[in-house]
Each structure stands twice: as C-alpha cells, then as structure tokens.
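retry 2 of 3: previous attempt timed out while embedding erythose-4-phosphate. Reduced batch size to 1 and resubmitted. Inputs unchanged:
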Amino acid sequence: MKIFLDTADPDEIRSAAEANLIDGVTTNPSLLAKVATHREPREILLEICDQVDGPVSAEVVAEDCEEMVEEGRRLSEIHPHIVVKVPLSQDGLRACRTLRNNRIRVNVTLCFSAAQAVLAAKAGATYISPFIGRIDDAGHEGMDVLSEIRRVYDTYHYETEILAASLRHPKHVREAMLIGADCATLPPDVLHKLMKHPLTDSGLRAFLDDWERAGRQL
Ligand code: E4P
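retry 2 succeeded.
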C-alpha cells in the first residue's frame, strides 16, 4: 500500500521524505492556502515535487470544465510529479477525460459513494479519493463506502487506484489497509501516530536498561 502525506507544508514533507516514509503527497486548496500566505503556490508545489520521488496531487480551483483543463495543463507543467486533482462534478469528470487523453494523470477528489467512484473510473481517473472522515462526520460509515468501491472496482477490473483520503487516525489507516485501498493519504500527525506503539517504547527502554546494567560495549 502506498502512503502519501496529506499536507502542503514543505518542512513536514522534507522530514517524511528523508525518512523514506512516503510514496507521494496530496494537497488541496485549503492545505495550500495555509502555507502560501507569503509565497506563490507554484513555487511551493515545485519545492514539494523536488523533495518527493512520487506523485504530488495539486488541485484545480476552476468550476468549469474548460478552465479546469487549462489550470490542469498549467499545473502539470510545473513538474513531472504533478497529478492534477479535479472535483467529482460533471465538469470535473469531463475535464478528467480530456486531461487523461492528453496523458496527464488525474486524481478525482471529493468522492463520497461507490457510484461516484465508478463514474470517475469510467472517466479514466488515475486515482479516486473517497473522503472517509467526512463520510463519518456526516453520520455514515466511511469504511463501508471504501469496501464497496474496492468490491466494484475488482468486479469490473477498473485500473483506477483507490486513494483513501480524509483519514483522521491510525484506526482509519489500519481499516483502509485491510480493505485493500491502493494508497492512503495521511496528515502528518496521523503518520507520526502510526509509528508509535507503547510496547515498542517500553520494550526499547527495557533492552537499553539491561544493556546498561550489564556494562557492556558493542
Ligand atoms: C485528500 O486528498 C484531501 O486533501 C484530504 O484528505 C481531506 O481531508 P479532510 O477531510 O481532513 O480535510
């Protein structure tokens, strides 16, 4: 399973990439707006792409198909790692098809149902991003939607990769892994929590204490 970092913060991305923890990055307009207060978004995206050896999703902000395609083309010219993110609207799906016909990779975002995911696959999406946490927030089961997408994609042999998004805690990540999502995008704090286990900490402490008591050198 590929692990992406869900942030536009170049420092977080650098640190995770240097530790070889991530296979790519996803951004969205909200995440980019947080860090692009004094810098050009394009410059930040370029910095991110230079740090990561994998796909970096960058989202269009237009709502109309032709403008989305134009923005998508411009985003894709920033760096070969860029994957253009379009929303799951009728215009977004049309833009997806046009961009894919131009060999530009597309992540269809803001997916909340298996039926939407099928439409994205039929539009040639490279990735589909179901928003698990936001489905939970709305009182439904995000993981049920993820399972349905996995089942339907397997049944019809769609090649679109399932990118579990809006993951809020390690349990979400574990469930997405078990369901068979192809990728999961994690906010930095969830990635840090994923690494931690109390038994790892106490086990390490015990090993080091025993070693010190024995007074040995390696
Ligand atoms: C995914 O690509 C989105 O950037 C992200 O996962 C949305 O997460 P949120 O619902 O926590 O904002």
